[in-house]
Structure formats: C-alpha cells, structure tokens
Design brief:
Layout (H helix, E strand, L loop, with lengths): L1 E5 L19 E5 L5 E5 L16 H4 L2 E6 L2 E6 L4 E5 L5 E2 L10 E7 L5 E4 L13 E6 L2 E7 L4 E8 L14 E8 L7 E9 L2 E2 L13 E9 L4 E9 L22 E4 L12
Antiparallel strand pairs: 1-14, 2-3, 3-10, 4-5, 5-6, 6-7, 7-15, 8-9, 8-14, 10-11, 11-12, 12-13, 16-17, 17-18
Length: 273
Amino acid sequence: MTKYAFVPFLLALFVFQTSAQNSPIGHWIEDEAGLPCYQYTGALPYLAPANEDALDTLRADPWFLLGNYRLTLFTHASGVYQIMTGERSWARLNQSGKSYGENGAELVLRSAGNERIQLVGLQSAAADEKKCARVFGTGYARFDYTLSDELACTRILSVKPSLKINEGVPAVVEIVRIWNKGQKELTLSYSEWVLANYCMAQEQGRSDADKPVTYRNKVAIDRNRSLIKADITGQSKDPLLVESPKRASRYDAYPPTLYIQVPSNSDLSRVDF
C-alpha cells in the first residue's frame, strides 16, 4: 500500500432516483445548469431508523454514484470516495476496510499555530452540516466549507461523462478554492492524499496470504510535471494466473495505473509520498 499527497484528483457521473419530497437527510434542488442535484443535510455518521442498523462505515456514510464506462466512483457524504475500476475486474484502487476507500484533505493554518482542519472523513468538517454544504449533481460532487467567519473553502470533484458506450475518460478533475474573508493576512497550506491499495471486490474479505493474486506498487514522481503515479502489478505463486493480459482469468493480474497531477504553479504545489 502506498499513500501519497496531492492537490487535484479524480471522479465521475451521477444517476439517482427518489421522490422529490424533502427527507430528514436532504432534498432535491436545481444547480446553475438547471439540472437536478441532491443536497445532503443529514448528520454524520448516518443514524439508521429503528428498523435498520448501520453496522459498518459504508452504511454510516451515505454515498452518491459518479462515473463513466471506464471509471466508477462512490462519493460519500463525508468526502471519502471509493475509486472503482471494471476494465478487467470489479476492484477498488484505494481499498480501506470493507467496501470503503481511503483519502483525505487538510488545511493547516500556519499563521494560527499550525491549526489543522480535516476536510474529509466522518470526524471532519465535512461531517458537520453546519460547517459544510454537500451537493451531488450530474458529473460532480461539491463541498462548500464555512470554517470560520474569516475562512471558507470549496472542493469540487467533476468528471466528463461517457459520450459513447464503452468509452470515457478515466480521470477526475478537482477544483479547490480558498477564501480569506477577514481583514488579516492568513498563511496556510493545503494537502490531499489517497491510499493506493488495489483489491478485487470479491477478494476483499480474504487475507493476503489466502489471495491467489496480490499487488504491489511501484511509485514514480515527475517533479517537472508535478505528477506522481503508482504502477500496480499483480504477483502470484501460480505463474499461469499472471501469464499474459490477453489470457482469460477471473483474477486481475494487470491493474490500471493510479496517477495524480497538479496542474498549478509548481513553485506553490508539489507531489510526494
């Protein structure tokens, strides 16, 4: 497993059906393009009705589906996401726990004693409905944070939907905006990270020792392009399972590469792991 930091990152298309009536956890609204989107207003972790039981993190953190034919991303109300691929098998690229992913975002106020503000997760500002407005629309997820009277932040994850069957861009663009609404100068830093941990969905309940194919990352950084990538390779004690990508197999021995690129000024941004 490899964890590395970044500023912008990935995601995908949203399709959702329910009644238009308000509910205890949110309501439907229209976005600037006149398209329907859902604003989640409920508390986190999600408290199930009396006849249900939120047994695990997946159910305690409601999710909305983004994606195209080459990338699926389950975006949770807390800002956590599961990066899914189905090109060879149904698998997560950032597996963490049962049916869950791992990623994070953090603001550090250097001018306020290095105060750290977590922006992603069930214990973060995103989980507080008074601090974060969470909207999920067609091809995007938006998190608007009001962190104080002086400081606000917006994170938008977006993807280009597929225009043709079996085609699509397997990448997500993230836009991060930070506002100083006060009169004093603020010094701060912002970082995001994702766990590179590839796991086939049907294998997530098994230990590595019992899995026919296990995975390792080879991480490379191109600092001139502000790019970092994890080349994921499969390995097995049975050579026939990893013989060739053209060979039919129920196990994915040739996963896709997970990469992150920061397109902003390299003097202000960097990638690392």
